[in-house]
Design goal:
The protein is mainly α. It has helices spanning 3-33, 39-61, 64-71, 74-99, 103-125, 131-151, 156-173, 181-206, 219-245, 248-254, 257-269, 276-308. It has 12 helices and no strands.
Length: 311
């Protein structure tokens, strides 16, 4: 590949990453627009229509054979089942947060997610950290303590979102070389669809959480609910495509777009309160991310320099 082609590929990758993270950042607006649907109904339809969208995408791309090959691999299916449970926890907590006035707390979860991922790597994978990475993790712990003291309780929403998505990433990494984004999302939604259907039946029969509103609030509301499927799949597919075109350091920078947009939506659109302690806590988290990002660039530069040294 020529240098010009490489730059073109990188430009496409950056655009795809920005669109993907931008769509994820705007997701709170979609979920609040689905009112009066409750969080559990939204998540259930997100799974059902997500599977439908994946089936259409597989048919269009003619990738049935690739997906079917995964279904007969027990180990892969077992790992994907664990991933499905983790992403279900993440989706449910996230939708609950963004529809009940806790979008800012959700944003904090995605700010600290890279730091939690590093911590999980140390605990579960016995990875060794550089001094700057240890510093970033330590700074983030201070931030959580500051926010907890000011908030009067632990920021559980933030921590559950960060740890569930961090664990999801670790689980997916185990099958990353054999499962593409579309097939992976298809298998995950296949595992979750029976739970989603059961949840819709329970909601419809009992009326819990407002019952099932799909079809009872007009065609515009129904289209929004159906749109949850593409809204789930499209950013993921764009992200997967961008990941193949960009370096990890460049991709790592773009990931902060999502929580930034969530914070803006929470504060300016949903008018959530930002106390002084919250601002201080967020500032400390941002300091940790600056340390982490700077260290990543320095490490990447050293690796490139070592790669060109003649041996």
């Amino acid at each position: 590949m020529s240098e010009r082609e490489a730059r073109s590929e990188a430009s496409v990758g950056v655009l795809q990453a920005v669109v993907a993270y931008g769509l994820w950042g705007l997701m709170p607006l979609l979920f609040t627009a689905m009112a009066p649907a409750g969080a559990f109904e939204i998540v259930a339809w997100r799974i059902v229509f997500g599977l439908g969208f994946c089936a259409i995408a597989i048919a269009v791309t003619r990738s049935w054979l690739r997906t079917r090959a995964l279904l007969v691999r027990r180990r892969v299916m077992g790992v994907m089942a664990v991933a499905a449970v983790l992403i279900l926890v993440n989706w449910t907590v996230y939708v609950l947060a963004t529809t009940t006035g806790h979008t800012v707390e959700a944003a904090l979860g995605y700010f600290i997610n890279p730091l939690v991922t590093i911590a999980l790597g140390v605990v579960l994978l016995r990875e060794r950290l550089r001094p700057a990475q240890w510093a970033a993790v330590g700074i983030s712990i201070v931030a959580v303590v500051v926010i907890a003291v000011g908030y009067g309780q632990m920021p559980w929403i933030s921590l559950v979102l960060a740890f569930s998505f961090g664990l999801y990433g670790l689980v997916k990494k185990r099958v990353g070389g054999t499962v593409d984004a579309l097939s992976g999302l298809t298998v995950e939604t296949m595992w979750l669809t029976p739970l989603a259907v059961a949840a819709l039946v329970v909601l419809g029969v009992t009326g819990l959480g407002g019952g099932v509103t799909f079809g009872a609030e007009g065609w515009a509301h129904a289209l929004l609910m159906i749109g949850a499927g593409p809204a789930t799949a499209v950013p993921l597919l764009l992200f997967a495509s961008s990941a193949r075109r960009l370096s990890l350091s460049t991709l790592g920078l773009t990931q902060y777009l999502t929580p930034v947009m969530q914070l803006v939506v929470g504060v300016t659109v949903q008018h959530e309160a930002m106390s002084t302690s919250r601002w201080i806590g967020f500032a400390i988290v941002w300091l940790a991310l600056v340390v982490l990002t700077t260290d990543s660039f320095v490490a990447a530069r050293r690796a490139r320099a070592l790669a060109v040294v003649p041996r």
